Amino acid sequence: MKKEPKKTFFDRDHLLHKIESEHQIWDVLIIGGGATGLGVALDASSRGLSTVLFEQSDFAKGTSSRSTKLAHGGVRYLAQGNIKLVFEALRERGLMLKNAPHLVSPLSFIIPSYRWWEKYFYGLGLQIYDWMAQKFRMGNTSLLRRDTLLKQMGNLNPKKLNGGVQYYDGQFDDARLAVNLAQTSIEQGGVLINYMKVNQLIKDAKGKVTGVEVTNVETGKTYSVQAKVVINATGVFVDDILKMDNPGANTLLKVSQGIHLVLPQSFLKSEHALMIPATSDGRVLFAVPWHGYLLVGTTDTPLDRHQLEPKPLKEEINFILETLKDYLKEVPTEKDVLSVFVGLRPLVLPENKEVGTKEISRDHKLKISASQLITITGGKWTTYRKMAEDTVDQAITIGDLSTGPCQTKALKIHGYSNAPAEDEAMSFYGSDAKGIAQLKIENPDLDYQLHPDFSFTAAEVIWAVRYEMARTVDDILARRLRILFLNARAAMKLAPVVANIMAEEMDKDKDWTDGQIRDFQSIAKNYLVDPTLGEVLASGRLQKVE
Fold this sequence. Notes:
It comes from Flagellimonas taeanensis. The chain is of the alpha+beta class.
């Protein structure tokens, strides 16, 4: 089966060789490979700055793969009066669609009206939202009659329904965009490597940060890497790096947790998304069609500590299911949940630290420490590009770097394609779909379906290993193919299949394969609503619970 692949820009060993052999002082060194760090790496490398990024796990392993998958201006922030953020996010939403049309698309949202005034109130607000988008408008807000609305959304609760509002926002695949951002930055000359954990900051005699000590998680080998500017873009972990710089540093963030439930799309019976504008906790709730399933979220739960694999709380699951009861005729229960995933939000603490997390602004914040460590945090996926531009502008000043203006407003993201996909399931690969098709031609034994509910083949696993820096079964099933996020049981069943394909491609032994299966099952059981079922699945007694 295995044919020796051609070396590519995205070969991890090739990138590690650059770290080992060049011994250069980089212009910009970035800690963190989520949306923010990847955006900074792309901005810096596209300006011609020598750029290196280290991520302790996989790209977008944390928050950046666990969003509501919306490229949006933020209707909630408009209601809060944060006009500046909404203007900025709507502009950035338009640039995302322009530069990555294979991953970003307009989506119609419907707000049902159950009180006489709601459709007029929300309709007026959303017309303002349209106006604020200016040339980046994705569609026009309109009021819907009751009968029209029930035709468009077949499972909507008709009791007391008097119509609704239809508006447009953007939808995207977050983890896939993260991978494509990494690829684009590498194409621009950047060096971005996953599974590289920063252990400590290196400082000169004056206390200025001049680099990092970083360990290759896979081999245990440690490197000292020098840079003119070091940027902390670690999301919910920024305080850890700040305390690495200064043990007495004040806490910058308040972390909150949000969960999403994934259900069969039949619970909405619509190609439109449902937006619930005011839940009992004061948030908005979305039910969004995504990859043939229905994604519902999100919650807002303040946390005192955070971890790389956060777990859903029973009350969060109950909150979403209870909220849906008021809006759907056929109501889902726990047994209908195919997957539940959890994301953490890095919210910058305001002066009044007692404010609730849902009231904390999603504006980003740049902090310059006395050591000249730059920290960028806050914000949201939609504004990643603007956050990166502001950060690199600051880095140029701090490091006295010589370069030109930002290039990312019109920079096409890897995979860019405006052409309609021949295979809808392959659409998020964009222009790379041709490469996968060619791989199947060259290796016909890779062209078999991995699971009856998903069209992915073994070729996509090989592609992710060779060209997308996937290193683990979790990388493949969670962030390259997204199966763990869509159907956790299917992902658990697939783990041994994927591990064996990867092992042959990567020349790994049985111990590695068994370890990968064990590690993935441990992660995946937390994506099931019933954790005891996860323990049964992880033990291999799959047939007894199907």
